Amino acid sequence: QQPVQSPQAVILREGEDAVINCSSSKALYSVHWYRQKHGEAPVFLMILLKGGEQKGHEKISASFNEKKQQSSLYLTASQLSYSGTYFCGTEETSGSRLTFGEGTQLTVNP
Amino acid sequence: NAGVTQTPKFQVLKTGQSMTLQCAQDMNHEYMSWYRQDPGMGLRLIHYSVGAGITDQGEVPNGYNVSRSTTEDFPLRLLSAAPSQTSVYFCASSETVGETQYFGPGTRLLVL
């Protein structure tokens, strides 16, 4: 089942913070976050695993609340390069395929 | 490493025509998948494969066929194109299911 992302869109000024949420009606094993810039392919940001392990390689943080079946992506001190559409993908059990949300469009203005 | 490559980048088809979208990866990944992306609908899984010779349907498989004869290649076939198949198509691969997915650059398809 497709996860629900909120907000659908957000506009920031450079240096401001943003939070993007991803929630599911089903128990989750992991949540994946991707960013897609206009006209480009999605690029991996981070995986959050059940049990708290987080795997990622960018200076963007996230949380995973297993009880609430929800993940949040935190972008602090936003930069112009953060602009794009952010997708969460959820995995219900280990080894199951990802189901992506509809995306959150983030625009950072100077 | 080229990563995940897709051809063509753009294609215009007439209703009823058939074509094959090519996807290849050089990372020896077991898992490969095809998504379509339509405005406001995110990425929807069409077909996927967990290894050579093994394929399965995703959320929106109707009108598409796939095969996986080698680890590297995962072509997507449109049997009889319809305007509803106008979309951007992404191929992705990962070491296994649930791992980081690497996306190709996409194919923009317009069906008239």
What are the main properties of this structure?
heterodimer, A: 110 residues, mainly beta, four-stranded antiparallel beta sheet, 0% helix, globular, B: 112 residues, seven-stranded mixed beta sheet, 11 strands, 50% strand
Question: What this model shows, in words?
Answer:
- The complex is a heterodimer of chains A (110) and B (112).
- Chain A is mostly beta strands and 110 residues long.
- Chain A is built from no helices and eleven strands.
- Chain A has strands spanning 4-6, 9-13, 18-23, 30-36, 43-49, 54-56, 61-65, 70-75, 84-91, 99-100, 104-109.
- In chain A, strand 4 (30-36) and strand 5 form a beta hairpin.
- The N and C termini of chain A lie far apart (37 Å).
- In chain A, 39% of the residues are buried.
- Chain B has 112 residues and is mostly beta strands.
- Helix content of chain B is 0%, strand content 50%.
- Chain B has strands spanning 4-7, 10-13, 19-25, 31-37, 43-51, 54-57, 64-66, 76-78, 87-94, 102-103, 107-111.
- In chain B, the strands form two sheets. In chain B, strands 2, 4, 5, 6, 9, 10 and 11 form a seven-stranded mixed beta sheet that branches. Chain B has a four-stranded antiparallel beta sheet with strand order 1-3-8-7, with no helix packed on it.
- In chain B, a hairpin with a 7-residue loop joins strand 9 (87-94) and strand 10.
- Chain B is globular and about 35 Å long.
- Chain B starts with a strand and ends with a strand.
- The model of chain B has no long low-confidence stretch (mean pLDDT 95).
- Chain A binds chain B through residues 2, 29-30, 32, 34, 40-44, 47, 87, 89, 91, 94-103, and chain B through 33, 35, 40-45, 48, 58-59, 90, 96-98, 100-106.
Q: Spell the H/E element sequence of chain B.
A: EEEEEEEEEEE
Count of DSSP strands of chain B: 11
Fraction of residues in β-strands of chain B? over 45%
> What is the first-to-last residue Cα distance of chain A?
37 Å
Poorly predicted regions of chain B:
none
Q: What distance lies between the first and last C-alpha atoms of chain B, to the nearest angstrom?
A: 36 Å
**pLDDT under 50 segments of chain A (min length 5)?**
none
- How many extended strands of chain A? 11
Q: Overall pLDDT of chain B, averaged?
A: 95
Q: Supply the number of helical segments of chain A.
A: 0
